Amino acid sequence: MTTSTTAQTPAPTPLLDLRALVVAVRRRRRLWCAMALLGLLAGAAVAVLLPPPPTAVTKVLVTHKEDQPNDTGTLIRTDVALLGTTRIAGKALRSLGSTEEPEDFMADYRGTGLTNNLLQIEVTGGSDAQAVARARALADAFVADHVRRMRQTAKAEAKALLDQRDRMRDELTEVNKAISGRSPGRGPEASAGVESLFARRAELTSRIADFDQRAADARTGAPELVAGTQIVDAPRAVRHSLARTAVTDAAIGCVLGLVLGLAVAAVGAVVADRPVLRREVAADLGASVIAELRRAPRRTAGPWRHRRARVAHERLTATLARTVRGCADGVSLLELGCARTTGVLALRLAEALAQDGPVVVVDGLPGPRLAGLSRQPEGPDVVGVEQAGTVASPVRRIGVGSVAPGTAWTDLRYLGSRTVLVVRAGSGSAAWLHTVARQLADQNIAVLGVVLVDPDPRDRTDGTLWDGPPAPRGRGEQPARRNGRGTSHTVQAVGEGRLPAERLPMWAVQQGPDNDQEAR
User: Fold this and answer.
1) 487 touches 504 (CB < 8 A)
2) What's the number of domains the chain is made of?
3) What ranges make up the beta strands (E) of 283-389?
4) pLDDT tens-digit profile of 171-221?
5) Shared-domain flag, residues 92 and 157
6) Listing from the earlier edge strand, what are the strands of the sheet with 118-124?
7) Domain end: 225, 252, 272, which one?
8) Quick one: residue 454, left, alpha or beta (phi over 0 = left, psi -120 to 50 = alpha)?
9) What does DSSP assign to residue 289?
10) Buried b (16+ CB within 10 A) or exposed e, 300-312
11) For the whole model, what pTM was predicted?
């Protein structure tokens, strides 16, 4: 039965795939975990090697004549700015008898406005006693300067009021003279002039009394401000806990290192553009993912992890054996970023196919030969590429090669006209995967599928290509599986001369200890 495929408009590709970015960053967890650990150690080392200097703190209550309940802190900020002047610093140094420059001393203390009238002063020194003495001298200098300014302001205001009063008295004297020098008249104009002079004298007398009262109030108001400005918290040394400081600095360093590591991992993932999802690898290579192989457990892993890995290898070997048995021509395994894993798979595949007849493994991998890998003494023979022509026709050949950068593409045809790509997730860029697909198509090497090594365990994307015209079934190929709707889905064996993108859809089988279901 022939199935027609309706052409659909492909979905637009996003500028940044967040799912792929998250997976890529998660796969580089060693980087950002190392950065976080480095930040943790650096923070703890800074706390131990660079302890804070001895510090003393004191608090000063500052009163202002212009204090208002709705003040936004402008006055206390002015006091903080005045504290950081050379005049205050110089007075404190003179009281201490120190020859240090005021500019240098200003870098050792700071002021903080806690409320509208409360000022906190922190001073550092060579020892706790020196820090306390500096804090006391600085607080006394600030209080004395503030009191002096308040008194000067009160004196200036009182003097201005008294000067105005004296001017009024002089005018009053002139008015009195005008009244005494006026001859008594009987006309209405004379009477009106006398009345205006008496009214002016009364007004001047009232204003003079008012100025006297205001000047007295100004003089009596300054003592209240002077008495209100005082040291309310005596200078004391601040105790530093080394353990608390180390924990705080270590936590800050860990967070900063983690953020920096995540940023570096994200930028590196975007710049490198190395596919890690099944759908990306399948799309870039133009071939479906037929199986997956989890990362090999470390030596410290439990026996159940090794048992799961062994079962996963056996299932993957059985899947590859079923795929290879349906091909009459030679089949090769081409690796990208996992040469040793591919060699082990080739030897196990040859041992599984040895039950059907003689099998020879043609080793085209760079570096150490497959004969150096541990295998059974009665295992299949391993020959080099130069000896591939001496293999007799009835003997099945399984070639093992590489498509890593630097590959001699013309030599891949001698390993087999059909191939299974064994690719480690994230080992090659998208551009290189496109190059591999194009070069294999130019060499007329049909790709049966992709075995994805070390995939992301949380990857739920589909690695099966469903588009493309169906290819006719050739001799020796297995019949297609059919689903309930009658559409065939098979691991296809494309004949020579077809492009990698023109192949039937294939099953994406999860081969690993964590997921045994088929992803369609």
Assistant:
1) no
2) 3
3) 289-293, 331-336, 359-363, 381-384
4) 888 888 887 766 665 556 667 777 787 888 888 888 888 888 888 877 776
5) yes
6) 109-113, 118-124, 55-61, 230-237
7) 272
8) left
9) E
10) eeeeeeeebbeeb
11) 0.59
